[in-house]
Design a protein that fits this description.
It is a single chain. This protein has about 400 residues and is α/β, with parallel strands linked by helices. The protein folds into 2 domains: about 20-260, 3-Layer(aba) Sandwich (Aspartate Aminotransferase, domain 2); about 260-385, Alpha-Beta Complex (Aspartate Aminotransferase, domain 1), CATH 3.90.1150. It contains 13 helices and 12 strands. Strands 1-9-8-5-4-2-3 form a 7-stranded mixed beta sheet, with helices on both faces. The protein binds pyridoxal-5'-phosphate (PLP). Pyridoxal-5'-phosphate (PLP) binds near residues 63, 64 and 185.
Length: about 400
């Protein structure tokens, strides 16, 4: 008999900086009286991330959703044009399209990458299509090369939602190098967090100015004294409809300190993942998606596929033991009330996405599970075997 866990085992637990160190930094911020608006720590955090991720340009945000909304806005896509996206994602992905007065068009995913299927993208393109918004689900890269080719052929912009792919590399190169803009999320549930937070990474430096201004209500990055001298009227200081996407100094301080422990967390998670793989590999109804050899796993989630139509039963069985796995992503975004009536939301258009969303289960996955020789993981696997 396996005993019920005394404490709830959730799908993730966030990493946090050393308590004394972060409280001391918070105290300095309070004394400085500079809490937000591109402060010293904000700028330092951007520089540190640029170095860490080995990318050319980065702009940090108060969260990933606002960053994604801003990314689409910065690309000046024609109002009401269509953006092809995946239904197998978090709500923020299609919501960012809709918030920009653009039309989400769902296309099916590939069963190996779990991201948009290039063939389905091509089939969804119309003369109204302006962009592709693809998601590197669980840190598995989309078929970036073929998506690139399609975008070039049809003159489309490409935005990647890399909320799950912090520090993922393809052949040693940051995943953020593909597409026009890549969004990262630093939400507390993510491998790397700044409590809430996010970023945009882009290769074209010229996008930086536009993103900087949109993030700050659209206020133009000009020297106001010079502008007045040159006769530029005050009302011309804002041309674009911007938003408040600024990250504050407390989040930036947290992010800077957390960046120092993220590698250690990834190392622990790698051991935890190994243990799950070792203990679940012989269970015939479980399949563990494998990362391609040339890709570094971000260690964000541990998704497994339950192949006997018993995913929901296993989910409930685990819950009886206080193990809270997640049916992530179920339901699909195309099944949400706000999107279900779109022509592209028909299940017949999204066959693989429907199959996958009914099979997938994300198991508890975080660094602390490494403790006591992965004892909790061993017990979770015993429960799964018992279910069998
Ligand atoms: C795939 C995906 N996109 C976007 C987001 C939104 O990011 P944030 O929570 O930082 O706004 C999340 C998660 O929260 C996500 O999982």
């Amino acid at each position: 008999m396996i005993e019920k866990f005394k404490k709830n085992i959730l799908v993730t637990e966030p990493i946090a900086p050393d308590k004394d160190a972060i409280l001391s930094q918070f105290s300095s911020i309070i004394d400085s009286k500079w809490f937000t608006n591109m402060g010293q720590l904000h700028n330092q955090f951007e520089e540190k991330l640029k170095e860490y991720l080995k990318v050319k340009n980065i702009s940090i945000f108060n969260n990933g959703t606002i960053a994604l909304i801003t990314a689409l806005k910065a690309l000046d896509l024609p109002t009401n044009s269509e953006v092809i996206t995946t239904p197998f994602t978090f709500a923020a992905t299609p919501h960012a399209i809709a918030w920009n007065n653009l039309k989400p068009v769902f296309a099916d995913i590939d069963e190996n990458t779990m991201g948009l299927d290039p063939k389905a993208i091509e089939a969804a393109i119309t003369d109204k299509t302006s962009a592709i918004l693809a998601v590197h689900v669980y840190g598995f890269p989309c078929d970036v090369e073929n998506i690139d080719k399609i975008a070039k052929k049809h003159n489309l912009k490409v935005i990647y939602d890399a909320a799950h792919a912090f520090s993922t590399e393809i052949n040693g190169k940051s995943i953020c190098n593909w597409g026009d803009i890549t969004m990262l999320s630093f939400h507390a549930t993510k491998l790397f967090n700044s409590i809430e937070g996010g970023a945009l990474v882009y290769n074209d430096k010229r996008l930086g100015k536009k993103i900087y201004e949109l993030r700050n209500f659209g206020i133009k990055e000009i020297n106001h004294d010079d502008a007045v001298k040159d006769g530029i009227k005050n009302e011309n200081f804002i041309d674009d409809i911007g938003i408040n996407g600024k990250m504050n100094e407390f989040q930036a301080a947290w992010g800077i300190q957390t960046l120092e422990i993220v590698k250690e967390e990834q190392g622990k998670r790698a051991t935890v993942a190994q243990k799950y793989i070792e203990l679940l590999k012989d269970i015939d109804f479980i399949e563990i998606p494998k990362f391609p050899e040339n890709v570094t796993n971000s260690m964000q989630y541990l998704p497994v596929l339950i192949n006997n139509y018993k995913r929901d039963e296993l989910y409930n069985f685990l819950k009886n033991y206080n193990v809270f796995s997640r049916k992530y992503f179920y339901p699909l975004c195309s099944e949400f009330g706000c999107y279900k009536d779109l022509p592209s939301s028909k299940p017949s258009n999204l066959k693989i996405a429907h199959q996958l969303s009914r099979k997938v289960l994300c198991l508890p996955f975080y660094g602390e599970l490494v403790e006591n020789d992965c004892e909790i993981v061993k017990n979770i696997c015993k429960i799964i075997k018992e279910f069998k």
